[in-house]
Design a protein that fits this description.
It is built from nine helices and two strands. It has two domains: 74 residues, Rna Polymerase Sigma Factor, Chain: A, CATH 1.10.1740; 86 residues, Winged helix-like DNA-binding domain superfamily/Winged helix DNA-binding domain (Arc Repressor Mutant, subunit A). It is mainly alpha-helical and 174 residues long.
């Protein structure tokens, strides 16, 4: 192990529990907290050469809090994601409807309907709604303007909703 890695580990590992406690309080669950701690230490490692403050613990906690705030802002800009059932490990669907409605929707029907919309719209919906990327991120990935992404997502969602209504997906929901 080289000296830089050893220095980083010696300086930061004693604070792992403190960072985890903070992450646990700002994160949603155990796994989210672990992810946040991992991202914190990755960011800290990449910036360790520029760290010169008196408290490594405070520096790590600040990185952790900033990452949590960024994630919170990103989540607030996109719809909530829920899975159709606790046992179902497939991709979550993005919804703006009550959970009891979701339980009645057949995910296979949604997947077939999604496959039937134009590819440009499908890709934009999958990247934004299922993968959770922002419109700006998707625009960069697809090398097109942000407004084009938003337009594709809007038109695609309308087509998808019309197909689902035509297939009577929500016929028993009041």
């Amino acid at each position: 192990m080289n000296d830089a890695k050893r220095d980083f580990l010696e300086a930061t590992l004693p604070h792992l529990d403190a960072v985890y406690r903070v992450a646990r309080h700002v994160g949603r669950d155990h796994h989210g907290a672990e992810d946040l701690v991992q991202e914190t230490f990755l960011r800290a490692f990449s910036a360790f050469d520029s760290h010169s403050g008196p408290s490594t613990r405070a520096w790590l906690v600040t990185i952790c809090l900033n990452l949590a705030r960024s994630e919170g802002r990103r989540r607030s800009r996109r719809p909530a994601e829920v899975t159709l059932s606790e046992a179902d490990e497939r991709e979550p669907l993005v919804v703006g409807v009550p959970e009891e409605v979701l339980a009645r929707i057949d995910q296979a029907i949604v997947a077939r309907a999604l496959a039937r919309i134009p590819e440009e719209q499908r890709v934009a919906i999958v990247l934004m709604d299922l993968a959770g990327h922002s419109a700006s991120e998707v625009a960069e990935m697809l090398s097109c303007p942000r407004s084009t992404v938003l337009s594709r997502v809007h038109r695609g969602r309308r087509r998808l909703a019309a197909m689902l209504v035509n297939q009577d997906v929500n016929h028993d929901v009041s």
